[in-house]
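Worked example 2:
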Amino acid sequence: MQDNTKNELRILMILTGGTIGTVSDPDGKRRITSAGEEAEPMLLTALRKEVPDYTLKVTVRIPYQVLSEHMTTGHFMALAECLRKEKLTGYDGVFITHGSDTLAFTAAFLGELLKDCPVPVFLLAAQRPIGDPESNGVANAAAAVRLLAEGTFSSRGNVIVPYRNSDDVMYLHRASGLRQCQPGSDDFFSADMRPMDRAAGMEQKEPAEFPETGKKESPERETTERDVPIVPEIRISPDVLLIHPYVGIRYDCISLEGIRGVLHTLYHSSTAPKELVGFLDRCREADVPCCILPCDPEDYHYETTAELLQHGAIPVSGMTEETAYIRLLMYHKI
């Protein structure tokens, strides 16, 4: 006799806006649906149809709704507070919707924030509104449901981004490894991304150590699991600069007023314009640590890199620029 019992999943769904939360008006312009406009979120209605073998008991929270290009550190804190108010152990998993423009930054933030979360968290985005038949939004959410039901990510601290690229393959990304989508593309990549059918072994890795800057203040990690806060209280502000090198960069136009840290990315060979040396001297005089990425202090090939280190640059390697930037925002009191 066939067993028609459905799998029941308790899901906390947090809606923050983005393309996955938009509808297209008659003029073709996309807008975010307002709270209460729908009996239930369009994504959830479509998801129930996509995964009929599962009974979804969903609690919806809406801390804010914005297109993700408008994300601020204030939104980070609002999202953290929304998560902190919930008894996460009462759910099988957490789904957070988000826009694609700043998805990698929020992924890095959640990867840091939820290191001790006992339930898996899935960050969901879409390249088109879910009402569009070519949208990947419902497929991404359905992948999260199936992964949740299969118990693929059962250990602590797993924040995963399931995302179907234009090659029609559903890829899984660790939040801390996701990179920004490139202009003109709807595809996302990460160093250890893998197709969904090869999800085994993707459990959360212990992140690389962040270098000392001389004035570091990190949340204490408790030694007993019982006392570990699932979502720590945080307070962050936009006082870290993220600088990319380019031909003709004017460091003299960059102010350090109100800045407590700088992350400066490098060219692929761990080099930067020679004018960065003078900027590093300004940073030292202002007591503002300047990290350079990617730079392995034991493995670089040009003397220009050695000069950067001699002038006080702090080398960072083994992480994305998004994660390095978020760690500077969250952990460093300069």
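The longest strand covers residues 7-14. Residues 137-150 form the longest helix (14 residues).
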